[in-house]
Structure formats: structure tokens, C-alpha cells
Amino acid sequence: MKKLFTKFSVLIVLSLLLLNTAYAQNITVKGVVKDETGLPVPSASIMIKGTTNGTQTDGNGNYSISAPSSGTLVFTYLGYATQEIAINGKTTINVNFSATANDLQQVVVVGYGTQRKIDVTGSVATVKGEDISKQASTNAISALQGRVAGVNIVNNGAPGSSPTITIRGTGTIYGNTGVLYVVDGVWFDEVSFLNPSDIESLSILKDASSQSIYGIRAANGVVLITTKKGKNGDPVISYNGSVGYKKVTNQVEMANATEYATIINELSASNGAAALFADPASFGVGTNWYNQAFRNALQTNHQVSVNGGTEKSSYNFSLGYTDEDGIVKTQNWKRYTAKFSNDFQVLKPLKIGYTVSGTVINSKDINGGIFRQLYAAGPVVPVYYADGTYGDANDFSLGGGNNFNPQVTLDYFNQKSKNYRYTGNVFAELTIAKNFTFRTSAGGEFGQNEVRNYTPLYKATQGQQTTQSTLSINKSENRNWILENTLTYKNTFGDHNITVLAGTTAQRRKSYFINSSAVNVPYSSEGDLYLALGTAATRTVSDGGALSTSASYFGRVNYSFKDRYLLNATIRRDGASQFFGGGDLWGNFPAVGAGWVISNEDFMKDQKVFNYLKLKGSWGKVGNAGVPVNPTTLTISQGGGLVAFFNGVGYTGANVTSIVPSFLNWERTVGTDIGLEARLLDNRLTIETGFYNKKTEQAIFAIPILSSIGTASGTVIGNQADFRNRGFEFLATYADKAQNGFSYSVSANVGINNNEVSSVVTGQNPIYAGGAGIANGALATRTVQGDPIGSFFGYKVAGIFQTPAEVAASAQTGAKPGDFRYIDQNGDNIIDGKDRVVLGNPNPKYSYGVSTTLNYKNFDFSFDIQGVADVDVYNANIAYRFGNENYSKDFYDNRWHGAGTSTIYPSANVGSTANSAPNSFYVEDGSYIRLRNVQLGYALPSSFTNKLTVKRVRVFVDAQNAINFFGYKGFTPEIGGSPTNAGIDATVYPLSATYRFGLQVTF
């Protein structure tokens, strides 16, 4: 690698010496860009044709650029026809865009560069940063929900949490399931550190052809994020702020105290015990634990940015602050962001620049089990007694299943987290001769996370007390860097347009953690919490880490003829240290795409239907190296029970941790994509549709092995399976603009995906998982050949036993009236594991969204609708009980409590019995549709703002997740999880709606 960079350095020096310095005389050209109604167009792009030099208009449509007097300026803006105007020595050039929508000449950000939209042969979706920043989401990826066909996003309601994103279905089990984020050239696993207001655009690479340029990590999709850069012109200062609150939506109603006491008495009778409560009605309504713990949570957000530049340099600086309370009392999350970027035109052929950012996140956490407690806690227990002491479940003899007071958990849980993230990228770009551009860049990140937890000495209730205080401090850090060099040749000759890219990449990723604890640490203030103050004999410490490196070589050729025939070919070769010494160290990832712009053919000139029509197709192969370090290395463990005695002397023993394969290949995803793009009705209607077939080959699959082997792990990994995702995507957008200042845009998309395990080396040997909330120890999901990944698996319910006679006549002779009647699938008159069947699919088949924007003079209005369909969730909350936990009001109202009272709902006895085994009763429809985002804005008239020496003032109100429709009986059907544990609701973080008022000011 050192030699490689030395060669590139020599190339730079020689190129500088050989450059032709006879450049044409530059002049300063100024002007204003307006639309067809005469209104200024902000952020329009002005480029000097044949170069990468350019600028953008300011908020009033003004621009200024230094350009050759004999050059040509290219004016572009999304939704308008591109205009090329020869300078011819003029110093003032004003432009009025045509109303004809034609953004085919606009550039789209792709891997290691850009392409004209007309030249793209893969499946690439682009979302503008302004559409992201309009939403209340603190995570930019959350704001993508429902906006891109084929992209499924599952949000977690916790403040600052990162959503789960899948692009065209789940394609792995054992490997890294997350997408690759590339932010200004630096690779990341997640982007919670990014302020959405700093984003210029996002590009989602969906097909293997567009992803293959990032071969090593592209198997699950790639999201390219470009942050805002400086623009030529006077300094522009902007403020963007909002204040609002979050509120729980679709709160689950629980049984009140009287109902709870009634159903608990029924449970006791079912188990042959005496009634626990003599007079249920005496308890009245009791405690609503959700109302006690939940609140309307305040959310504030502020950002200030400064943007400007000259002909020689540009800059962008921003500061951001977000303060968000959780819907659970005591929870809080704060994020501080700072970003600075600078570009310098050092010489006419040489441009350098950098981007640095820093993020600090502080949070006050809640106990992860609080939602389980709020669901299970007995409403007969008061929050406090009259004397101010805590209500104690033990005083009501509720038993161990819910022997807690959730308020105690909230009051005594003391945990704070701090996260520091610093990222940066520096680059140099050299124009060599006329058609070559060399670019070198170095980027990286340093991240540190600290979690401090303190449990004091206290006694609140019989079941909630400690005899000693405990302090734990866990720290982790990540240090990653990436070096990249690319050489690009770009030329147009005659009807031919060609771009050739060659490059190299080197990366290193290092992580380290240290966990420590001590007991009997006194607490007088936050600054006094030191492990050294605890009992010396109790102090513990453990640490670990991982180091991985990779090297890559890649190339790409883009070719077009007459803007009619398109070709894209890519190759990438990656080497990853994870496979060193026992794996396929190097992987090759080729791809090819082709396109045919049918509308540019001569035989299409006289037709009046299509303004634009393109057929495209692609094939490619990408990889997934996201496996644990050294997966083929045999490891051992030592413990107190591993002792051998020889001649009366004890010796420490060891045991093999897991059986490992002698050789392991990369997971490889092979994808085929066929698409059609069309524009009709004078370019007002745009349609994009496509079919894809994505197959994960040689997937790393964990197969169960006999426990008698004696390993700590009950599985062995290997390249043992193939998965397939096959689907269809459709996007339609209709946009128009009237002469009276009214414009609108309506966009709708739908994605259809079918997931299946297509083959397994070991045949029908399944993977069982999904044990969360299953009280009898069973597992609720199965992954096996022929079915989707993580399918719900269990017994099919035929009804409820009503009488002892029905039980006696069935195959479930051990059942009771009120129990589930399971179907004897194999007809052997025995109900056992052989009677289990597939019950549902947690992988959504349909995902869709509708986005609408209306503008009338100074008013703007937008709303987004989003949803999924044909998906199932597993409601584990119902049977997640080990004693006298509470029940939902729905269960109470519909339960079986005597012959003929219900044929669908069982009796109260659904805890650790055969009734809690995974079965079809707990599998519910997870489809939903929601008003994802709605916003109304108003920009004050310029006649008023000019008096205030302010360029623009806009106020807005908006709401997110305000209206939700679904049939699921939990808080939300939007439930994440790993591929084999997805869709299981064992008390998830509730869904919330956000309502805001905001102000945007530009100086």
C-alpha cells in the first residue's frame, strides 16, 4: 500500500509539471435565475461546461461565477429543462427556466461519482435533504420511511434510536444484516450522529449493479449521503428551529383493578387454589400504570448554519442541538452536533477540501424491562400508600410473577450514557491535461461510548431492595480509517460519451471495550462515583476487541451512444482479514448494466404518448464480509467447573467453545434487475417500474448440532444455505405548475417482495429461534428450506375446549376446559411437536407510500402516507406470564370463563402451560397504514422581510404519526428484530406521535 501511494504522489508531481497553463482569460459572470412565473429559484446549479467548477444560486436566485469568457454555462434545476448558454464575453446572464419538467440531465450521486439520470442503468433512488429535514425524525434514515419503493424501515420509538432498514428483503442470517452508509466518502454502520439538516441528498443503491462498486459490504444495500457544502456568494446565515411534544398513540388498555381481581380469581380456580381476592369490586379502578409512567414528551431542535464562498474557496459551518424527552418519565436524550467543510481552488487544476464533524450525545436511560413491568403490574397495587411509602405487590400476595412497583424501577434506576463521535474526510482533486481527474481522499472516525449505571442501597418494597450498592462502568471505542484513490477519464467525442474509473481502497476497523464494576460504592454526587471507592475484593474488569483490515481494487466503465444506448460495467476485488488463515480471503464482484432510451429512436419521433422511455437491465454480484473476526479459528473457554485432579492437585481445564469450519467463503448476493422508465403528458407524469431477483449464495448458516458433543455453542456455522428475494417495484409521480403561483406534486410507490430459503446443504434441518416472551421455553420461529426466513411456527388452534367431555374425547387428554384445542396435523391422535406448522411470515410482502406537496404563493403544504401489508406479528405479551400478571382489557372482555363464553379466546390460564406454546392465536395481522408526516408552512412576504433586512422567514406546523390504522392489539405492529427473531412483540417501545411548531430564518 505504501508503494502504491508513493506512485500516486509521483504522478501528481509529474502532472503538475506537465500541465498546460495557457488557460483562457476568466471573467466574473453574474445574474438571477427565475422560474416561468418570475419567482427566484434558490439552489439552482450553474456549471462551467466541460469542467467540475460551478456554483449555486442563493435564496433570491442570484449567482456569481468566474468563468472563461469563451465558455458555456450550464443551468440545471430539478423539474426544469437544462439550459446551456454561451458566455461570449457577457458579464450578466439572466435565466428563466422553462415549465417543461426534464431532469434527465441532472446528476445522480452513485458510487465514487455522479451520473446523468439518463445514463443510470441500475436501480438508484434519490431523496433530497430538504425533504428529510422537514420531518420530526432525529434520525435521517427514519425520515425515508415510505418514500422509496423496495425499502422497508422499522422505527424504534426510543429517543435517538436507529431504525432497522432492509433493501429488497432480508438476505442474511449470520452475517451483518445492516446496510452500508457512505457519508462524504467515509463508511459507517449507522448514522445516528448525523444532523438531518446537514444533509444535501441521499442516494439508495438498490440493485447489485449499482452496489457492486462497494463489493465488500454491499450485500444488504448502500445508502450514499452527501452533506451540504459551501456555495459561491456572500455569507448566508440560516436558523432552523422547532419545539413540540410526543404523545403515545394507540395505548393498550389494561384491565382495571376490579377486572384484574376478577380474572385472577378465575386463574386461581383453574389451578385448584382458593380465590385471592374476596371482593374484587372493592378495588374500583385502581392504578393505571401506563398513565402513571407515560407523559407528553418535550422535543426541541435548533440549528444554525453559515454558508458562503468566493471564486477560490467555499465554506459551510453548522451547529445543531436536539433535546428530546422519552415518553417514559425520567428518560432524556440530547445531541450536540458541529460540522465544518472547506473547499479551496489552490490552482486552476487543483482543488482540495475537507469536512470534519463532531457529535456528542448524552442520555438519561430507563430500565429495559420497564415496559414489561407496566404491562404486568397489578392495578390493585397503589403507586404510594397514604403514608408516602411505595405500594407493595407483596402486600396483596400476588406472587413472584409481578412482585414489583414500576414507580420504584423508575425512581431507582440511575444510568447515564455518553457517546462521542468525531468524523472527518480530506481530499485533493487534480485535473490532468483535459480529460483525466485524479482524486485522493482519507477519512475516518473516532467514537467512544460510556455507560455508567449505579444502584444504591435501598429498600422500597419486599421484592425491590438491595443490600449493597453497585457501580458499573462500561466503555467502548471505535477507530476506523479509509484511504481511497481514483483516476477518472471522461470524454465526449461525436455521439460517444465515455467515463472510465479506476481506484483503490484500504480500510482498517478497530474496536475495543472494557467493562468494570464494584460494590459498596457510596454516592454523594455524580463526581464521586469511582470504582476505587468500592470494596476491593468485589471489583471486576473484563475487556475485548476486534481488528479487521481490507484492501480493494475496482474499476468501472460508463458508455453511451447518442444518449440512446447505455452500458455500465463494474469490477471490484476485495480482500478481508476476517477470512485470513482459513477462508476465502479475496472476493471478486463483477456487474454489468445496459439501457436503451427508446424515445430517442427515430421511429419514436412522431409518437405523442411518451416524452421519454427507457428500458434498462442489470446483473451483478456483491459480498458480505460482516462476520465475526477469524470465524474459522477454534476457541476455548475456561471456567470454575472445568477442573481436573491429578494426584490430588487441581488443574484448570478448558473446553472447546464451538465447532468451526476449516474453510469459509464470503456470502455473495447475485442480483438481476429489469426496469422501465417513462414520462408522459408533457413530462408531468413520471413512471419507474422494475422487477428484481436477488439470491444470496453460500450464505453463512448456523446448523444445530448434538449437545452431547460438549461444546458451549449448540451450532456450527458454514456456507450452508441460499436465500432468495424476488419482487416488483413501482413509482409514479405527477407534477404540474400553474401560472397563478400554484404547483403540486403527487408521488406514489409500492414494493412487493417474496423471501424464501431456497436451499440448505443439510436439507430440511431447520433453525429454531424467537424465544422472547414464550413462557414455557418454546421457540416461535423456524427457518427452513422452502419457507421465508424466521417464519412463525407452532400449533394451529381449532377452538377452545368448553367441557370436560370435549377434553376426554380429544388427543389433548391433559387439557382443561378453556384451553386451546390444537389440530392433530398428522392424525396420530397425539398432540406433539410433529403437529406444528407455519403460522405466519414476519417479512412484509407489500410496502407502500404516498407523498404529496402543494404550493400556492407563500403557502406550502405536504403530507406523506406510509404502510405495509401482508405481514404478521407474534403477540407474545398475552402469554408472557409466570404468575398473576395483568391482562389487557381486550383479553378480559373476550376471555373464556365458562362453557359457551368464548370459542376464540382461552381462559386466564395462559401462562407457563401448553396454552403458552407458540400457536396461531398469538399470530396477528401486522398490516398498517398511517399518516406519516403532514406539514403546513408559510413564508412571510419579501416586502415585509426586506424591511427587517432578512432574506426569508418561514413558519410551519407539522405532525408525525398522527393517524394510524391497524388491527393489531398491541401498541404498534412496527416490530423489528434480527432476521430469525423479527416480528415478536415482547413489550416493545410504544409508537408515538410528534406535534411541532417551527421557524426558519435566512439572513
Largest sheet: 22 strands, antiparallel, barrel
What structural class is derived from the secondary structure elements?
A: mainly beta
Oligomer: single chain
The span between the termini is 48 Å
- Overall residue-averaged pLDDT value: 89
Helix content: under 10%
Query: What is the CA-based Rg, rounded?
Result: 31 Å
Q: Quick one: how many beta strands?
A: 51
Low-pLDDT stretches: 1-24
Strand content: over 45%
Question: Helix segment count?
Answer: 10
Shape category: globular
Give a nutshell description of this structure:
The protein is mainly beta and 1003 residues long.
Compile the SSE list and pairings.
Elements: H1 2-18, E1 26-34, E2 45-48, E3 54-56, E4 62-68, E5 72-76, E6 83-86, E7 95-96, E8 107-110, E9 113-116, E10 124-128, H2 129-133, E11 151-154, E12 164-167, E13 180-183, E14 186-188, E15 199-205, H3 208-211, E16 222-227, E17 233-248, H4 257-270, H5 289-293, E18 297-309, E19 313-325, E20 332-347, E21 350-364, H6 370-376, H7 406-412, E22 414-432, E23 436-455, E24 470-493, E25 496-519, E26 540-561, E27 565-576, E28 586-597, E29 610-624, E30 636-637, E31 643-646, E32 649-652, E33 655-656, E34 667-680, E35 685-704, E36 715-737, E37 742-760, E38 767-769, E39 781-783, E40 791-794, E41 797-800, H8 804-808, E42 820-822, E43 837-840, E44 846-856, E45 859-869, E46 872-875, H9 889-894, E47 923-925, E48 928-939, H10 942-945, E49 952-966, E50 984-985, E51 992-1002
Parallel strand pairs: 1-7, 13-16, 46-50
Antiparallel strand pairs: 1-4, 2-3, 2-5, 5-6, 8-9, 10-15, 11-12, 13-14, 15-16, 17-18, 17-51, 18-19, 19-20, 20-21, 21-22, 22-23, 23-24, 24-25, 25-26, 26-27, 27-28, 28-29, 29-34, 30-33, 31-32, 34-35, 35-36, 36-37, 37-44, 38-39, 39-40, 40-43, 41-42, 44-45, 45-48, 46-47, 48-49, 49-51
